[in-house]
Design brief:
eight-stranded parallel β-sheet; 13 helices
Length: 314
């Protein structure tokens, strides 16, 4: 069985985390992933504390395994959600889109494992000094908010910069990706886009269909002008937003244009006005299947590759 120090740290069977995708990664999906041996993560996104508390309780009613919550630090509810995870005794917190330094000490005092998402070596070093439990090094191939460096470049540099366990994210969807992450020095992976195809993922059928029919050039990045680049599928919304972004539209109009677009995709499957977040790896997602089956397939695919790689250097 493929295990690593990450499994012991988090109390999970397989070194696989499910990404915290806003309005997508709910309590049902998180519980299914945790029951499958990985770490399921509820996405707080821009949701208020009551929603996050409800999803945590839904997950805990469905699994006795550890679960996590991803806190998007740009959220206006970040302070409240930071307390909810303590009150609800969540085992793991991952963070993104900001610096979680003001919360780390309190979370750790509550026994929570803190795993920030980092997109640079500088942030990895800072989070290490501040007491993070592990780091997620996420390359720009991922869906949602993205950084400048690719996974292939970022992961080994972060591994060299910290003694903490490193989890690779961005562009990983199968056993080859998991094996590559280990070879780069990581001890686990986080996958988001692959779990969009999970049976337990409640996205609109239109969203799931677009993922299953995606090709290698299916995504684009928008939002760089506002300082918050986001990767999503090439849809009418994404193209229109890109034109507006570089067409002289004011910043506040751009902000308003994007507000609610993800929910329109997730909940209504709106093919014109919805923002369908996706990583570049979507082309490798070929079928809908249970979360536990996804995890097992990825791990089983990595094991023979790693065994063969061990024979390459004598």
């Amino acid at each position: 069985m493929l295990r690593s120090e990450l499994c012991q740290l988090l109390g999970i069977t397989y070194p696989v985390l499910q990404g915290g995708m806003a309005w997508i990664a709910d309590g049902v999906l998180a519980a299914a992933v945790s029951n499958g041996g990985g770490l399921g993560i509820i996405a707080a996104g821009n949701a208020p504390q009551d929603y996050v508390r409800e999803q945590i309780r839904i997950a805990k009613a469905r699994t006795k395994q550890p679960i996590g919550v991803n806190i998007m630090l740009l959220s206006p509810y970040a302070d409240e959600v930071a307390q909810v995870v303590i009150e609800e005794q969540v085992e793991v917190v991952t963070t993104g889109a900001g610096n979680p330094s003001k919360y780390i000490k309190e979370w750790r005092n509550a026994g929570i494992k803190v795993i920030p998402v980092v997109a640079s070596v500088a942030m990895a070093k800072l989070m290490t000094r501040l007491g993070a439990s592990a780091l997620i090094a996420e390359g720009g191939e991922s869906g949602g908010h993205v950084g400048e460096l690719t996974t292939m470049v970022l992961v080994p540099q972060v591994c060299d910069a910290t003694p903490l366990p490193v989890i690779a994210a961005g562009g990983i969807a199968d056993g080859r990706g998991l094996a590559a992450a280990f070879m780069l020095g990581a001890c686990g992976v986080q996958m988001g886009t692959r779990f969009l195809s999970a049976t337990e993922c409640s996205i609109h059928p239109n969203y799931k269909e677009k993922i299953l029919k995606a090709n290698d050039l299916c995504t684009m990045v928008t939002g760089k002008r506002l300082g918050h680049p986001v990767r999503s599928l090439r849809t009418p919304f994404a193209r229109n937003y890109s034109k507006a972004e570089y067409g002289g539209v004011a910043d506040d109009e751009l902000e308003a244009m994007g507000t609610g677009a993800l929910q329109l995709a997730v909940q209504e499957g709106d093919l014109e006005k919805g923002c369908f977040l996706s990583g570049q790896i979507a082309a490798l997602v070929k079928k809908e299947q249970p979360s536990a089956e996804i995890i097992k397939e990825v791990v089983d695919g990595a094991e023979p590759i790693l065994k063969e790689a061990a024979t390459w250097v004598r």
